[in-house]
Design a protein that fits this description.
Layout: E1 18-26, H1 33-38, H2 42-47, E2 50-58, H3 65-71, E3 75-78, H4 84-93, E4 99-104, H5 116-124, E5 130-140, H6 147-164, E6 176-179, H7 180-186, H8 197-208, E7 212-219, H9 230-243
Parallel strand pairs: 1-2, 1-4, 2-3, 5-7
Antiparallel strand pairs: 4-6, 5-6
Helix pairs in contact: 6-9, 8-9
C-alpha cells in the first residue's frame, strides 16, 4: 500500500531556509535580554521556511547582559564606543553574507519578538525593501510611553512623512527589518553614534529610494532603566532630521591603475 503525502506538506531543512539575522543592541539590559531572546517564535519561523540567528551587540554593559545573552543561545559581539548608533553600526558590519533578512530590535523587552513575522513577510513577498515597526500605529500598553515621548514621536513622524515623503508612522521606533541588500546599501552612509540612528536610517533610506513601509506593532513597559535623555537626545534627533534634508548619497567612481588603462582612454 502506498502512503500518500498531503500536497500541503513541505519538508524543510535549515540549509534551505531563508536566514533571518536579528541584531539586538544592549547596554545593561540584564533584566530584559533573556526574555527577548527566548520569546522568538522559532518553531513558527521554521515552519514558515526561515532559520534564525541572534546577535547581541554589547555596548560596555557592567551587569550580566553578556552572560544571560550567551546562556539564552545568542552570539555576542562587543562595541566599546558608547552609544546605540555605534552599537548598531557594529552589528550591521557583522551581518553574515548568507542572511536573507536583517531585523533590529531593542533588548529591553519593550518590543514583542513574536511579531517578527509581521515585518519579515512584507520583505519576503517583495512588497518593500525595508519595514518600520510602528508603535504609534499599533498598540501602546499603559505605562510604556510618557506623554512627552508620545508627543515627540508624533511630531517627528509627521514632519518626516511630510518633508521626506516616506510612508512611515513612527520614525523613532526600535523595531526595523530589511532585506540584506537594502541594509548593505544603507549601512555605508550611517554616521550616528547615539539615539539619532533611527532618524538617520529612515531619512537616508528615503533619500536612497528604498521602498519603506510601516506595520503596527505592540509596545510594552521596559525592563530596567531607560538610557534615553528626552531633551538632549531629542535635540540630536532634530539636528539629524535637518542635516539630512541636504544630504545626497555620493556616487562611487572606480579608477583603473595606470598600468591597466587602455591606450587612448582616460582610465575612468
Amino acid at each position: 500500500m502506498c502512503k500518500l503525502t498531503s500536497p500541503h506538506t513541505t519538508l524543510m531543512t535549515e540549509d534551505t531556509n531563508k536566514k533571518i539575522v536579528v541584531l539586538i543592541p544592549c547596554y545593561n539590559e540584564e533584566k530584559g535580554i533573556g526574555e527577548v531572546i527566548e520569546r522568538f517564535p522559532r518553531d513558527q519561523l521554521l515552519f514558515q521556511g526561515y532559520s534564525l540567528e541572534i546577535i547581541v551587540i554589547d555596548n560596555n554593559s557592567a551587569d550580566r547582559t553578556v552572560e544571560i545573552a550567551q546562556a539564552s543561545g545568542a552570539s555576542v559581539i562587543s562595541e566599546r564606543k558608547q552609544g546605540k548608533g555605534n552599537a548598531m553600526r557594529k552589528g550591521f558590519a557583522e551581518v553574515p553574507e548568507d542572511a536573507a533578512y536583517v531585523v533590529m530590535l531593542d533588548g529591553d523587552a519593550t518590543y514583542r519578538p513574536e511579531e517578527i513575522l509581521r515585518l519579515v513577510e512584507l520583505l519576503d513577498s517583495r512588497f518593500c525593501t525595508a519595514v518600520v515597526g510602528s508603535r504609534l500605529g499599533g498598540r501602546i500598553a499603559p505605562g510604556s510611553m510618557t506623554a512627552l515621548n508620545r508627543a515627540g514621536n508624533w511630531f517627528f513622524a509627521h514632519i518626516v512623512r511630510y518633508i521626506y515623503r516616506v510612508n512611515v508612522t513612527d520614525v523613532l521606533t526600535g523595531y526595523f527589518a530589511w532585506t540584506r541588500e537594502a541594509l548593505m546599501r544603507l549601512h555605508p552612509h550611517l554616521t550616528s553614534s547615539g539615539f539619532a540612528i533611527e532618524m538617520e536610517m529612515v531619512t537616508k533610506m528615503a533619500k536612497l529610494g528604498e521602498e519603506v513601509y510601516a506595520v503596527p506593532i505592540s509596545y510594552e513597559p521596559r525592563a530596567g532603566q531607560t538610557n534615553l535623555r528626552p531633551f538632549y537626545d531629542g535635540s540630536r534627533i532634530l539636528l539629524m532630521f535637518v542635516r539630512n534634508l541636504f544630504w545626497r548619497p555620493r556616487e562611487k567612481v572606480s579608477f583603473l591603475p595606470n598600468d591597466q588603462r587602455v591606450p587612448g582612454t582616460s582610465g575612468i
